[in-house]
């Protein structure tokens, strides 16, 4: 059977349950919720809560990229261009701005964190390093912002003894210059007698000083000789045994070489095939000791018909021997 629970009024108080009674306490009854009031609809005379037509049209127009970019990018650029043109046209404003900019740059450049702490040269000998320091002419304390690293590199590479150079600042403010020194392979004698050193590319390194200071370097002379240093290296590389006896290589007619050796011996090489011709002479030297005989000239300009010219005293001795032999005498 369903239990009927009486409803209580909102202001009625229920008495506490009797503990001796076995009856179950009646459940609490929540007061009935009052219905929410409906929002009042504004009459036609009040303002509508939605956006107006003008603001709606403006928002739609602002959503277009061309209008938004024009207002945010192009208009400021046009304004800045007009302002810059007006300032540039006015000499007073332009001079004032230039003075302010120069002053600001000077203040920044004078800060101690931009000062050069020193110059370090890496590569080459002590003499070359001193020459590089004189070329850059940088003193500690100078501002690194006023130095052109590329111009310094060109200044260092303009030195004859420097093949390549790299110039850069390290985090401590030291200007580091790394140089690759040119290696002298030959000596070139000018028409005035001055000796200079040349590298493998024929580039002049600098004065050589006395000939005795470079006993292992061959001497070349003649018009166009510095342009053929590579051919000189090839010649001497194929005949290393001739180097100790070599006095000079002479460029003749800017076409070929004459080799001057000790004991007054001259070897005339052809314009083409000079390396092969010199190799033939060295083969005769190893087999017949050709270069040790009383010969003044070995002419190899015609490789198919080499010519030997004896020294005057040797030719006279040979004639005497032939005359004695013709008379039936003995060779002494």
What does this structure look like?
Helix 6 links the parallel strand 7 and strand 8 (246-252). Helices cover 34% and strands 18% of the residues. It contains eight helices and twelve strands. The strands form two sheets. The chain has a nine-stranded mixed β-sheet with strand order 6-5-4-7-8-9-10-11-12. The protein folds into three domains: 59-108; 112-181, Ubiquitin-like (UB roll), CATH 3.10.20.310; 186-326, Rossmann fold, CATH 3.40.50.11690. It starts with 52 loop residues before the first helix and ends in a 6-residue tail after the last helix. It is elongated and about 155 Å long.
| Count of separate DSSP helical elements | 8
Largest sheet: 9 strands, mixed
CATH class of the largest domain: Alpha Beta
The coarse silhouette is: elongated
Low-confidence stretches: none
User: Strand fraction band?
Assistant: 15-25%
Gyration radius, in Å? 52 Å
Run of helices and strands: HHHEHHEEEEEEHEEEHEEH
Output the CATH homologous superfamily of the largest domain.
Cell division protein FtsQ/DivIB
Which strands sit side by side, in order, in the main sheet?
6-5-4-7-8-9-10-11-12
Structural class: alpha/beta
Mean pLDDT: 80
Write down how many β-strands occur, each being a DSSP E stretch of 2 or more residues: 12
């Amino acid at each position: 059977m369903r239990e009927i629970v009486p409803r209580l009024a909102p202001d009625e108080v229920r008495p506490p349950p009797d503990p001796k009674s076995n009856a179950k306490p009646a459940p609490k009854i929540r007061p009935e919720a009052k219905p929410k009031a409906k929002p009042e609809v504004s009459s036609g005379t009040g303002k509508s809560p939605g956006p107006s037509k003008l603001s709606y049209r403006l928002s739609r127009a602002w959503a277009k990229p061309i209008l938004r970019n024009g207002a945010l990018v192009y208009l400021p650029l046009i304004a800045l261009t007009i302002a810059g043109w007006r300032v540039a046209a006015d000499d007073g404003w332009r001079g004032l701005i230039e003075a302010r900019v120069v002053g600001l740059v000077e203040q920044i450049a004078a800060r101690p964190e931009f000062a050069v702490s020193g110059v370090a040269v890496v590569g080459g000998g002590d003499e070359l390093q001193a020459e590089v320091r004189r070329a850059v002419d940088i003193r500690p304390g100078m501002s690194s912002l006023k130095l052109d690293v590329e111009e310094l590199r060109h200044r260092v590479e303009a030195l004859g003894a420097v093949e390549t150079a790299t110039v850069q600042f390290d985090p401590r403010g030291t200007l580091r210059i790394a140089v690759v020194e040119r290696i002298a392979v030959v000596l070139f004698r000018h028409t005035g007698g001055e000796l200079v050193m040349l590298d493998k590319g024929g580039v002049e390194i600098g004065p050589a000083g006395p000939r005795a200071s470079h006993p292992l370097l061959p001497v070349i002379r003649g018009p166009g000789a510095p342009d053929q240093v590579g051919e000189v290296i090839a010649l001497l590389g194929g005949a290393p045994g001739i180097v100790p006896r070599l006095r000079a290589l002479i460029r003749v007619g800017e076409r070929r070489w004459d080799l001057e050796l000790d004991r007054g011996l001259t070897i005339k090489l052809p314009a083409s095939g000079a390396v092969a011709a010199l190799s033939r002479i060295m083969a005769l030297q190893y087999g017949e000791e050709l270069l040790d005989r009383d010969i003044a000239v070995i002419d190899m300009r015609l490789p198919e018909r080499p010519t030997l010219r004896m020294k005057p005293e040797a030719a006279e001795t040979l004639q005497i021997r032939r005359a004695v032999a013709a008379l039936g005498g003995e060779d002494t």
